[in-house]
Amino acid sequence: MKRSKKQSQPLATRSISRTLLTSVLTVYFLLTLVITTGQIAAEYQNTRNSLLNDLRNQHYTFAASIARSLWEFNELQTEALAEGLINVPAISGVLVRDDQQRILVRKGTINSTSAFERLEKAGPIAESQGTFGYYSPLTFEFGSTSEVVGDVILFSSRDVTIERLKPSLILLIFAAIFKSSLLILLFSLAFRFYLRAPLEELIRQIRNFDPESISTSSIQLRQLETNEFSLLEDSYNDLLQRLREHQLELANAQHELARANRKLEDQNLILAQEVSEKTMGISNLMLDLDRRRHDLEVRQQSLEHEIHQRRITESKLKQSNKDLEESVEFLQQTREQLLNNEKMAALGNLVASITHEVSTPLGVGITASSFLKEELHKITHHVAQGAIDSEQLKRYLANTIESAELIENNLERANELMHGFKQVAVDQSSESLRSVEVGEYLQRIIKTLKPKLQKHNVNVLVDCPTIHAQFITGALAQVLTNMIVNSLKHGFAERNQGEITISVTLSSNQLEFSYSDNGIGMSSNALERIFEPFFTTCRDNGGSGLGTHIIHDLITEKLHGTITVNSQPNQGLHYQFAFPVTLTNAN
Questions:
Q1: b/e per residue, 202-225, with b = 16+ CB within 10 A?
Q2: Which of 67, 172, 231, 363 has the fewest beta carbons closer than 10 A?
Q3: What are the tens digits of pLDDT across the range 302-318?
Q4: Is the pLDDT of residue 542 over 50?
Q5: Within its chain, how far is the Cα of 52 from the centroid?
Q6: CA distance 587 to 585
Q7: Nearby residues of 353 by Cβ (< 8 Å), 6 or more positions away
Q8: CA 185 to CA 538: how far, in whole Å?
């Protein structure tokens, strides 16, 4: 009976690609929101500190003049100096008092003065009701003596901080929106090309399956590369091929059974002829023939039953083999996916570490550039007014040189960190051969893990002669990264300091590594299973059990080397591994 060509209406389903895309973009948006919020908070704090520094510098500039005017009771000059201070963009308020705490000048936005009556030591004033400032006593020096003639408080406000912060905020928000829009477009195109389109093509071809014409029901997906859809295509076509073979075997079995039945009918005819030729008096012979015929029928029934049982058993075996093959294929795909996830998690940790390292010199460079900009504005303002002397010019030039040097040093530090991170990150995601100086490359790998090492107070010692060699550097980077991370997570989990030693020697074009830590070590039972996948001693703390398994696979399969491990409780862990390399000249 032919299958009906009319397809039933599909039930409402939810697209896997859309669900996956929504999940990925949701996580990305949340991370972007958190990171952007943190950057805005950091920018606000840096801007506020810059304003406090401006207040301090303005105090150093005007303190001597205000003190002299107070000593000489020159209220007009004091008022003029306060007026000059209030015109500075960073200053929103000025409060000048005499030595009896009486207010002489009060300009701009100032909160209640009762909070400043007990201030005695020069320094910043904490923010209150959106206003913060800088307090300092005024001392007039004459001869060899000095006397406190009053104090001055310079105020700035949250509004000034936000006004100065606006360009940075606009840039941060625009960058976040641009990156998010670009990511949505790229992910949408990638999911449609690599997942949705192949799935729709696969469903369309499977729906065209015709059991009466299996040879024309195979599927052919247009794939540019071998992937999971290619494996599914091969498995489905292989299933159709086995189904065709099963139909042929069934047809042959039916043919054999028909031939056996014909032989049986011929035999029955022969027996009937022999019986008809015998006389009615030979009753024993008739009984014997009847008994033989009965036995033959029983044997025929037994044979048919055996054939039926064999068919059932064959069907069960084929189904079991199919289920087993599908299970093996699923386990293999799951294993590869877990290994890839573990590698990407290691790379994600590397990105988080280097981001923390780079943010410090960049933050210092931004602060120095902001201070340099303010200094240039000041000197431009004074030059335009003709109110600058040689001492002020020297001080401005010294501050400018110091800020420029600070910016240059920190930018060089950030560039060095990013260069090392870029090379190690590219290596970990690549399987190509590359020529390196082994000792220098080990130091670069350790530098990318510096934040984690500092957090656990662990020191790494490297003993490596000068060796120039060519090999799969990405595999070595992943091996050492996993070893160090495992030492930090397992070996030093209960300790506040430790030491890791890495020794390298060259023997017959083979690099031999000795890796040791002085952590808590492992028991003999755990050591026997250390390279098994999914085995871990800290499952409750997020361990996946794939770290050492990846190490073993990378060394034995990617690098074609060998690895051994030994350990005892409280005596650390020791790896010995080696792999062949091609020696190169140092160019």
A1: beebeeeeeeeeeeebbbebeeee
A2: 231
A3: 888 878 887 887 777 77
A4: no
A5: 38
A6: 6
A7: 448, 449, 450, 451, 452
A8: 40
Separation between Cα atoms, residue 514 and residue 277, nearest integer Å: 98
Instruction: Evaluate if residue 131 carries a pLDDT over 60.
Output: yes
* Among the ranges given (16-25, 364-373, 552-561), the one the predictor scored with the smallest mean pLDDT: 364-373
pLDDT of residue 354 exceeding 70, the answer is: no
Of 415, 529, 550, nearest to 485 by C-alpha is 550
Quick check: helix, strand or coil at residue 443?
helix
Give residues with Cβ within 8 angstroms of 420, minimum separation 6.
444, 447, 448
Q: Which two structure tokens, joined as six digits, stand for 431?
A: 């399987």
The confidence score (pLDDT) of residue 358 equals: 61
Q: What whole-number distance in Å separates Cα of residue 519 and Cα of residue 488? A: 9
> Measured between alpha carbons, how far is 551 from 530 in angstroms, rounded to an integer?
11
> Rounded CA gap, 403 and 444, in Å?
29
pLDDT tens for 212-254 read 777 677 777 776 667 777 777 778 778 877 888 887 888 888 8
Give phi and psi for 424, each to the nearest 5: -65, -40
Are 510 and 467 in contact, with CB atoms under 8 Å apart? Answer: no
Q: Which domains does the chain have, with CATH numbers?
A: 17-181 (3.30.450.220), 432-583 (3.30.565.10)
Q: Which residues contact 303 (CB under 8 A, 6 or more apart)?
A: 260
Q: What is the 8-class DSSP label of residue 214?
A: G
Q: d(Cα 312, Cα 326) in Å, to the nearest integer? A: 21
In the three-class reduction of DSSP (H, G, I as helix; E, B as strand; rest coil), residue 92 is classed as coil
| pLDDT level of residue 145 (50, 70, 90 thresholds) | confident
pLDDT of 8 reads 46
User: Taking a C-beta distance cutoff of 8 angstroms, is the pair 272, 240 a contact?
Assistant: no
The helix (H) or strand (E) run that includes residue 138 is: strand 131-142
Say yes or no to pLDDT of 116 above 80.
Answer: no
- In whole angstroms, give the CA distance from residue 569 to residue 79: 77
